[in-house]
Amino acid sequence: MASFASAFIFLLIPLLFQFPSGESGIEVNYYSESCPRAEEIIKEQVTALYHKHGNTAISWIRNLFHDCVVKSCDASLLLESASGMESEKATSRSFGMRNFKYIQTIKHALEKECPATVSCADIVALSARDGAVMLGGPYIEMKTGRKDSKISYAAQVASSIPNHNDTVSTVLSTFQAIGIDTQGTVALLGAHSVGRVHCINLVQRLYPTVDPTLDPDYAEYLKKRCPSPHPDPNAVLYSRNDRETPMVLDNMYYSNILSHKGLLVVDQQLVSDPNTYPFVKKMAADNGYFHDQFAKALLILSQNNPLTGDQGEIRKDCRFVNIN
């Protein structure tokens, strides 16, 4: 993976979004005094993990979405089931998520430098920021100062996170509820440019008959990847939305769905929906525009209802609440 990454050199121009200091209780460079190397340590760990396990960069972006869209950006996603509390990770919407153990790798490095100082919620946010860069995406100046939740919101996951085959209108409503407009939602779905889709989430477009919105040749390729209409849900059978640049966060995703090569229902509906189609066209034509809109939307997502002050805690272990 390291050799693949080294083939790409990206000029990353920071996208600075200025807000009044302290707005929503978080701010840029929150740890400048309490743990000056906090963001540098996270970046070092994200980079090392990427070169050892390239798919971690994709996991960091998905973690941010799953954490922040459910109630708050508060690392509730990372809590294990304990004392009668169900973990959000155990819900069906978290199917296919992995690499949680490497959050602990980052946390251990931070605890060694600054014990009980950097929240797991900030690790989720900053690892997503740095993971996006490792995938060739834009750099985003994110605020920090989030606190960690003491409870899980597993019961709210199903109503907060869209299903893989929900309509585009449902997905738009989900993001609009946290302040992300149609343009931003189309940009965030561009994260499908990287990563994978398990066969169980796409076979309904292949069997018993092929979805007519799928390119016929592409459908045949997918059938080879997913030869059964009843795949083992635990089997590692999958395809990628972007076969040309599968580990680069770029606008190839939009070109593919314009060519009827989207994997999920929502991917193809971005083209058929008149509200989203113009943005798909524009992002397919301009990678810089896609990056700009992706950065703005990810920033809004990262600031959804953060816990600050006495609302939460700094977990010593991201998997469990502190024992006082």
From TrEMBL:
Its EC number is 1.11.1.7. One of its GO terms (biological process) is response to oxidative stress. Heme b binds at residue 192. The record marks 62 as: Transition state stabilizer. Ca(2+) 1 binds at residues 67, 70, 74, 76, 88. The active site is at residue 66. Substrate binds at residue 162. GO terms for molecular function: heme binding; lactoperoxidase activity; metal ion binding. It is an enzyme of class 1 (oxidoreductase). It is found in: Secreted. It catalyses: 2 a phenolic donor + H2O2 = 2 a phenolic radical donor + 2 H2O. InterPro entries: Haem_peroxidase, Haem_peroxidase_sf, Peroxidase_pln, Secretory_peroxidase. Ca(2+) 2 binds at residues 242, 245, 250. Its cofactor is Ca(2+); heme b. It comes from the Eukaryota. Binds 2 calcium ions per subunit. Binds 1 heme b (iron(II)-protoporphyrin IX) group per subunit. PROSITE patterns: PEROXIDASE_4. Removal of H(2)O(2), oxidation of toxic reductants, biosynthesis and degradation of lignin, suberization, auxin catabolism, response to environmental stresses such as wounding, pathogen attack and oxidative stress. These functions might be dependent on each isozyme/isoform in each plant tissue. Belongs to the peroxidase family. Classical plant (class III) peroxidase subfamily. This is Peroxidase. The lineage of its organism: Eukaryota, Viridiplantae, Streptophyta, Embryophyta, Tracheophyta.
